[in-house]
Design a protein that fits this description.
Helix content: 55-70%
Number of strands: 9
Number of helices: 13
Structural class: alpha+beta
Largest sheet: 5 strands, mixed
Strand content: 5-15%
Length: 439
């Protein structure tokens, strides 16, 4: 069962009565798989294992034996109907089968008395409670069944009933523990998936903030130029229409600047997560990068291989910025292969030498021309042009990488030749990445 199917089941909101009816029907059907022993009407069935598992999982808030009553009636109705089909009279069928219905009522009654909170009960106490419920209900069922045909078969020893109850109770507990473990596994997987998406979103927002701040500087320059133009037009005695237009432009640009600053402040507040100052291991960071890249590849996962190598694991304090660098470089390499041979390898190698962190991102794509290498880190320049749609990439990924690398006190280089792929090499001070702590 995957996470999507599990969520669908979670969204099915059943009333307590509906759950009780479902339990009754399932137990009644499973009770038809049985062995007859010791007395007529006394059955050893798989339902005695399924029943407690359903009571604990589906009726966690139950404090009354309503489920036992409904289940007992369902079992009695089904067994009576089958007996009628075999030619028995109604009265004889009811008398023969009613001890089986009493078993489930007694079981639920005892469970309500022994386990007050089915959500927090310990496994050991649950096992002991189920054993007592099974043993006592079995004894009552056998007693009622044997009274129907006295002397028909010798009653079993106490240890036989106790052993049977222990086996069935232990099996039911094992099923419950396995189900609980699987449930926890699904929750951890879903939590990890949500965390990865949140982390990637935050990293992307932080990268975009750089360009918004850069735009603010450009807007400030335009506003300043417009106002100086207004002053010069005033001094030169230009027509009032021209000077008013220059002043209006300066005012409108100022309003745009204020709106831009509000957006920046809002984004900065939203991406200020509680784990900003917590370290993340390099291995976890690469795991998130790998999951993100494979999702980006989609159907081309088998065509473009990804390899990640690192010599040692260490804590990363600047995880957002490091992930932004790696994600942009790896995505750039993947897109280069997609634009060329469409099949290839992207490799990331990370190593620490002294107080420096080195990593390279290499691909075997079509490569980059010498002229393009000189312009790669300029905002607005892009080599990614779609001839079919006419769309061109805005060209901000690699400039953002260089800005972040230089902000961390490092450097970046590219080595490429047409037809031979490309290698991006980054060097960062280890202290700026690990927050002052060397591995």
């Amino acid at each position: 069962m995957d996470l999507s199917n599990y969520r669908v089941l979670q969204n099915l909101r059943l009333t307590p009565r509906q759950r009780q009816l479902i339990i009754g029907v399932l137990v009644a059907l499973s009770s038809q798989f049985y062995l007859t022993a010791w007395a007529r009407g006394f059955r050893i069935s798989a339902a005695a294992i399924l029943y407690p598992a359903l009571l604990v999982t589906m009726m966690r808030d139950s404090h009354r034996p309503d489920t036992g009553l409904i289940t007992g009636l369902c079992v009695l109705a089904l067994r009576t109907a089958l007996s009628l089909l075999q030619g028995a009279s109604l009265a004889d069928a009811l008398i023969t089968e009613y001890p089986g219905g009493v078993f489930y009522l007694c079981y639920d009654l005892l469970l309500c008395l022994l386990v007050r909170d089915r959500r927090t009960v310990s496994p050991l106490w649950l096992l002991a409670s189920l054993w007592v419920c099974d043993l006592a209900s079995n004894a009552l069922n056998l007693l009622l069944s044997s009274q129907l045909r006295p002397g028909e078969a010798p009653l079993p020893a106490f240890f036989s009933l106790a052993g049977l109850a222990l086996i069935r109770s232990f099996t039911a507990c094992a099923i419950l523990l396995a189900s609980q473990g699987y449930h926890q596994l699904l929750l951890r997987s879903e939590h990890e998936h949500r965390y990865h998406r949140l982390f990637l979103l935050t990293a992307n927002l932080r990268t975009e903030l750089y360009f918004l701040k850069k735009d603010s500087e450009d807007i400030e320059a335009v506003m300043s130029h417009a106002y100086r133009l207004y002053e010069r037009l005033e001094k030169a005695g230009a027509p009032e229409e021209l000077s008013s237009l220059a002043l209006a432009i300066a005012r409108e640009v100022h309003e745009v600047k204020k709106d831009n600053l509000l957006i920046i402040r809002g984004l900065e507040e939203n991406v200020a997560q509680t784990y900003d100052h917590q370290d993340m291991s390099l291995s976890d960071l690469l795991h998130i990068l790998d999951a993100s890249t494979r999702q980006f590849l989609g159907q081309q996962r088998a065509d473009i291989r990804l390899e990640y190598r690192y010599q040692q694991d260490f804590p990363v304090r600047e995880h957002y910025r490091l992930l932004s660098i790696l994600k942009n470089l790896v995505t750039n390499a993947v897109e280069a292969i997609q634009a060329g041979p469409r099949r290839g390898l992207v490799s990331l190698n990370v190593r620490v030498e002294g107080e420096q962190l080195y990593f390279t991102v290499a691909d075997d794509g079509p490569g980059i021309s010498p002229r393009a290498c000189r312009l790669l880190f300029q905002v607005g320049y892009s080599t990614k042009f779609d001839a079919d749609t006419g769309n061109i990439n805005r060209g901000v990924g690699l400039p953002a990488v260089r800005f972040i690398v230089e902000e961390l006190g490092g450097s970046i280089q590219v080595d490429s030749q047409p037809g031979r792929g490309a290698v991006f090499s980054v060097c960062l001070p280890m202290r700026s990445v690990s927050g002052g702590e060397l591995p």
